[in-house]
Each structure stands twice: as C-alpha cells, then as structure tokens.
Amino acid sequence: MDAVILAAGEGTRLRPLTNDRPKGMVEIDDRPILADCFDQLRALGADAFHVVVGYRKEDIISHFGDEYAGIPITYAHQREQAGLAHALLTVEDRIDDDFMLILGDNVFRANLEDVVMRQHEDRADAAFLVEEIPWEEASRYGVCDTNEFGEITAVVEKPDDPPSNLVMTGFYTFSPSIFHACHLVQPSDRGEYELSDAIDLLLHSGRTIDAIPINGWRIDVGYPEDRDEAERRLRTASKPEQS
What we know:
- The chain is α/β, with parallel strands linked by helices.
- The protein has a single domain (2-238), classed as Spore Coat Polysaccharide Biosynthesis Protein SpsA, Chain A (Alpha-Beta Complex).
- 28% of the residues lie in helices and 29% in strands.
- The chain has seven helices and 14 strands.
- The protein has helices at 33-43, 57-64, 84-89, 112-120, 177-184, 195-204, 224-238, and strands spanning 2-7, 27-28, 31-32, 49-53, 67-68, 71-77, 99-103, 106-110, 126-132, 142-146, 152-157, 166-174, 209-213, 216-220.
- Strands 5-6-4-1-7-12-9-13 form an eight-stranded mixed β-sheet.
- Strand 10 and strand 11 (152-157) form a beta hairpin.
- Helix 5 crosses helix 6 (195-204).
- The protein is globular and about 45 Å long.
C-alpha cells in the first residue's frame, strides 16, 4: 500500500512550538513527529509516501527531500485549511488502490498492523483504529455512534454533545471509494470538509467499514502538554527493563 500523510496544519494550539515550524516538524525526543509517522508506515510496508503540506511547507520538503529510508516521497499542496476531506482530495490523482492514511500530528505505539490486515481481507472498504477516551475529551475528535450491538453506524466530527466516547484515532485504511465520498461532502458548521462526514457517507451507502480497538497507545499532539507526554512515553518505552 501507498501511504498518505496529512501534514498541512498550522498548529495554532501548539504555539509557541509552531511559531517557526509546521506542526509536523515539532520535535519529540529530538525527532520531528513526521519522522516517527514515516517509521511507523515503513514498518507496515508502505511503498510510497504522499505528504499533504500547507503551512510552512518548505520546512518539510527541505528536511525530508524526495525519499525517506529508501521510500519515495511526493508532496501535494493544500492551499487552504479547509478540512481533512479537502486535504485528502489533493492526492486523489496519485492513488489507484487501497492505501493507508495517517494524521501527521499523531504518535502511535499500537496495533496499526491489525488495521492493514483487515483491509487486505478484501471485505472492507475502510478500516480504522478506535479508542475509548474520557467523555469530556470526546468533543475534540471524530466520534463514533454505535448501535445496541456495538457496531458503528455513524461518525460525527467534534460534536458539542458526543453520542459516545469512542473516537477515531488518526490511522485509517481506505479503498479509492473514499475520494468519491470526499467530493460529496458539504462544509460543516466549522466551514470545513470533514473526513468523518465522508466516512459517514460511506456507511450510509452500505459500504463496509471496520473499527479496530486500539491495543497500545497514541497521542494526538494538539497542545504543548501533549508533546511533553508523547516524549515522556517514548523515553520510558526505550529504557531497558530492570532485572
């Protein structure tokens, strides 16, 4: 699979860390977040990286160039911050098969391979990692609505009154059908073309989407304290166990 990395955001909530760099270039344990994303995707067998850039895009392009660890990189420019569905459409002409998608401000140490394996089973049009979080935090994310059997029936982006505390985590696999759904999405109340709305359209058209519970951890680096927590966890994980 190819991999798409969304890294166009300005990261206003991460200031002052993003005063002089894009969000994906904020360092965790002395490395840009994007480098960690690339490593995770490389371990999953990514054939190519397609990076969607925007704010201070030159910083990303000049740092990584046209390859990472032997894997080719292409860049697509999202000229306005109009939502994740809008960002994904910038690479539509480069994708002709199932692909991985990761949000370039997330740090994962989790079962991403389970999502990829589910997509390879050829029964799903999409799969994504989900996580139960505290209710008071759910309004920050794409929230999954479920039925009495625990099956996902809808997703909604950053709702004021979340229907559940089960949220999408920022790692997905899709078939190219997602692009058609992205074209159909209308601007949300926030004025953005939401990826969660495109996923919801797939659900309501009868497409099969599988949600994989997270096994491990992930941190959405939205605020400076999130960067600090991700760094703490990575450093703790790298310490040798005491006998």
